[in-house]
Amino acid sequence: MRVEEHTGGVPPPIADEAAGTGPDPVGDEGGTSRTRRRPKRDREATRRRILHAARDLFGEHGYDGVTVRMIAARAEANMALVNRYFGSKAALFGEVLAGESTLRGVIAGDPEGLPRRLAEHFVRQIGQSHVTSISRMLDRSAGQPEVKEILLHYLEEQIVEPMAAQLDGPDARARALLASTIIMGGGPVRRLLGTGDLRAADPAELTERLTAMFTAALAPLPR
């Protein structure tokens, strides 16, 4: 979010205390003083620190167990900057979620190769030896009303809409939703039941089976 200059009756920008930046009076050619904006690179660095702090805290404590004050303290930033850059804790959670997701990149590309790319992504998730940040966030935040709205937005913006845009023919959204149930449903099953049996299976065989599943889900529905 852009920080307004201190001109007339507009309040001065909030200083980033951690980065040591903020309104710095400097002389102009006419000998008067003006307020210099905080350098863009400092704003971006502070924004990244806030995102990283929020990701870690949401993963550790869940959405309801984290406050804006906690995020600001972990990021070593002025608390007002969290709201200034992101608007609210809910909006920050949504941005962290979108930033951690790799699905939009998986979906992009040749439409004909989409089922296989989705299958390969699924198999990669199975093979991971550590719990991802996004999984920890979802595990510890499920059930919160605000999080439900964020997840609906995430599902639409990051998965359903991009996937539907790749599909020709009728009922593109319905077909994208059907494939999304495989993607999103796999996470809870893996976390609840574990992936030991699936890891023991041949990854190539799993990829072929999942490719067939995604191909069937994304195919035009019979009329």
Automatic annotation (TrEMBL):
Keyword Acetylation: no
Gene Ontology molecular function: DNA-binding transcription factor activity; transcription cis-regulatory region binding
Disordered: annotated segments: 1-47
Domain of life according to the entry: Bacteria
Keyword list, A-Z: DNA-binding
Residue ranges constituting the HTH tetR-type domain according to the UniProt record: 44-104
Residue ranges of the annotated DNA-binding region, renumbered to this chain: 67-86
Protein name in the entry: TetR family transcriptional regulator
Organism: Actinomadura hallensis
